[in-house]
Structure formats: structure tokens, C-alpha cells
Amino acid sequence: MSRYLLSLDQGTTSSRAIAFNIDGSMAASSQQEFPQHFPKPGWVEHHASEIWQSTLTTAQQVIDQLGASADDIAAIGITNQRETTLIWDRATGEPIYPAIVWQDRRTADMCSELKQAGKEPWLQQRTGLLLDPYFSATKVAWILDHVEGARQRAERGELAFGTVDTYLLWQLTRGAVHATDATNASRTLLFNIHQQCWDDELLALFNIPASLLPDVRNSSDDFGSTHESWFGRSIPIGSVIGDQQSALVGQACFETGMAKSTYGTGCFVMMNSGEQALHSEHRLLTTVAYRLNDRVTYALEGSIFMAGATIQWIRDGLQLIAKASDTQLLAEQTGYDNPVYMVPAFAGLGAPYWDPDARGAILGLSRDTGIKEIVTAGLQAVCYQTRDLLEAMKADGVHPARLRVDGGMVVNDWLMQFLADVLGVEIQRPGITETTALGAAVLAGMQVGIYQGLDDISQLWQQQRSFPPQIEVEQQHQLYQGWLDAVRRVCNSQE
Ligand SMILES: Nc1ncnc2c1ncn2[C@@H]1O[C@H](COP(=O)(O)OP(=O)(O)O)[C@@H](O)[C@H]1O
Ligand SMILES: O=P(O)(O)OC[C@H](O)CO
Known about the structure:
With 495 residues, the chain is an alpha/beta fold. The chain is built from 17 helices and 22 strands. The longest helix has 25 residues, at 371-395. It is globular.
């Protein structure tokens, strides 16, 4: 009998494969970083072969570590960095251009022109997204316009488009399956989230031929099987889901109002809004949380570009600390009354400001300022930005009562307590913080009948520690006002 579920978690900087036992505990894992390519300022590319090879290698290593064979894997789930765009030749599987990564800003002018033409409200209404280079549509258009002959080949039906999940499915099945799920489709700017289909008028706006597009399935569905050449035997692929949505599932946020926040390189807050696609008036994104048995659950999402990346910059750029975990002791020594504020707008500010031209700043420096105040300000900035997102949610009429957290930063207890205090909501840290990988694994398990439904998955979630808010509202207000003042000074176009 098959004992494991294998999750392939293809992220922005590394590929991870994690095998889970049926009770949701981790059985084995393997991770491999791969190169980032920056051919021009503001451009970020990945090589498809490096995405694929790191995924395949880590999957094979996990199966080896378990001393298992393909027969022991009940199903595979795929979860992935979203929006990153690939186009390949259907006959050979060869990409016609490197993957354009979600962080890539090369299509900023195209987005500004469409914005000036007044297209954003219309696009937001259909897709839940905003006009930003972050999403796939303008990246697809760019490839078709810049790779010689690409548009003609696309029109002849010779090319296929996919986000990373779709490309991995194509590779794993050796071209037998060209599909994605509704969560990944909902990040392209081409998918109507209300009607759950590719939208002809959006395709026309971006001048993208429909022949490029993958079939859109449920997040837990039949995605074919791996070709037997990869793991010795074929293994069913039972789920595909974008990584932030997968973390929402891994955190068992299945009820309306439940929310998770992932603190890795960036930070992504996502709140389940049930069957209602909430329209945000405050520049949050409306997105598909998951689609099961053709029933859609929606979410509201806000993203912060620099979370752990700020700590990396403090460590590698400023060289103020030797390792990320040093931040905790320094913050304990500084305490909450830190006059220094850091606004880590290195690449502009994300939600709810969406100011691509804002640049970073450290404010409130005096002769007394030392390393510990600057480091603490870096940690605090992550929490203040989370508060910005929760404020935007509140202004949209919803507010989570508590937040489930995951990602590499959440091991920092000081950070978690400060987060609870600045937000005024309880922070819940689960036993398994690899919730992104877990989400895809359990959805694959549902597809092959290991779990009967979401209730079974909820049972797997366990709290490791809770951080209730402990400071007075007045102090909370004071701290946050200092942040808002700092942001005002770096923003060019605040609402
Ligand atoms: N103890 C810590 N305190 C603060 N930040 C930390 C700590 N440990 C790791 N980090 C940060 O967490 C990030 C790694 O988280 P991870 O979830 O692995 O990121 P990703 O999946 O985006 O690569 C790094 O940016 C690192 O700076
Ligand atoms: O790969 P991550 O974890 O940085 O996540 C990337 C997001 O999916 C981008 O939207």
C-alpha cells in the first residue's frame, strides 16, 4: 500500500520536494537552489531547464531517502511560484525564451499605458487583479512581440503557454497534459474569476491567441501521471495549486475570515472570503483560494515584496549581523521603543501602496543609534507592513481575528510577539511550518481518496505556539503612526 504523498514545491529561489506521511508529518525532504538571471536592470529570468532539473533531482532524492519506490508514493502534488511565464514549442517541449519571473518589471510601460487608457477598473472587475507587470499577461505579450516568429507560430497553434505548474506538468507527463488549476489561472490577468474561464476580451486586449492556453482544472483533480521514465513507474498527479494558496490549504484556513501569512523572502497575507469574490477598494487582490469539485472559494490577498529579504540585506549588504537568527537577541535588547524606522522599499512598495517608484529609507537616526536599533527596525518593518495589509482588509469590510503564520522567519519569537502586538490579533504558529508543500500534498491525497474532504485535512493542523497581543492599544497606535509617517516620506503616489 502506498504510504506517502509527494509534494513538489517549486519556489522563486529553490525547488523543494517533500514527502509527507498520511498523518501530515514530514517523512523526507530535499531542496536545491537554482540560479537567478538578471540580464538587465529590473529584469528577472529563470532557465526552464534549471527549474525542471532541480525539481526532478529533488523528487528523485526524496524517493531515494525514503528507501522507497514509485509504488510507495500514492500521489504527487505540484505547488509553485505563481505568475512566472513560459512559452514552449509543443512539438519539442523547448521553451522559446527563458521564464520571465513574477518579479520582472520589463512590462511596466505597457501596464502604465493600459492604466492611462482607463483599463484597470474593468480588468480588476473581471480578474480581481491590478495592472502591474507582476502578472502573466503582459509577459506573454512581451515574448510574442520580441521573439522572432513567435506570434506567427502561436497563431498556427505550435506553441504552448504555461505558468511553472503547467510547464512541470508538461515535463512530468512528457507532453501528455497541458493544464493548470484555477488558482494559477487566476494570476494571469487572462482568467475571468467569476465565470471560471479564459476571457476572450482579455485575450483580445493583450493580443494573445487562445491556442496558447492550458486547460483549467480544479486544484485537486486528475492531472495525469508521471511518465515512467522519471521514477521507474508512473505516479498519479492529484493536485496543482499556486504556492500561497497551497499554504492557505496547509494552514487549514477553510472558513470565511480565516487567514494565513507566509514570511519567506517576501510576505503574502491571504484571507479566505468563502464563495464571495470580494472586490477590494484598497488595492488588495481578489484571487481564487482553491477550486474543489468545480466549487470556487475566493480569497483576498496582499503582498509585501521585502520580508526575509530585508534581513538578508542587513546580513549580506550592510553586514550588521552574521546570521538571520542574530536579529532576535538584538531586538530583545532594543525593545519596542525604537525611534528608528526602516522602510524597505528597495523595489518599490507592494500592497496597499503599489508604488513602483518608492525607494527605501532609514529614518529617526541619532548619535545614539547603533546596529541593534537598525536591525530591530528591519524586523519591525515586516510587522508594520502586515498591519498595512490588515488595515486595507478592514477598510474593505473584513478583518481576520487571528493569523496563522509560516515561512522561514516565523521561528523568531520576538518577531511573532511584536507582530501580535502591532496587529492586535493572536498569532498562531503551527507545528509544521512547511505548509506550502503540505497543502499540495493533502489535495493530492484527496484526489486519490486518502482524505474524504476538508474536515479530514483540518484535523491534521496542530498549533505549536500562540502569541496573544500584550500591549495597550495606545502604544500600538503610537508605534504604527511612526511607521505611517515614515512611509509618507518615501512614497511618491500614496492614495
Ligand atoms: N531567525 C530568523 N529571524 C528573522 N528572519 C529569519 C530567521 N531565520 C530565517 N529568516 C529569514 O527567512 C527567510 C527564509 O525563509 P524561507 O521561507 O526559507 O524563504 P523562501 O521560501 O522565500 O526562500 C530568509 O530571508 C531569512 O533572512
Ligand atoms: O516562490 P515564493 O515563495 O517567493 O512565492 C512567489 C509567489 O507565488 C509570487 O506570487
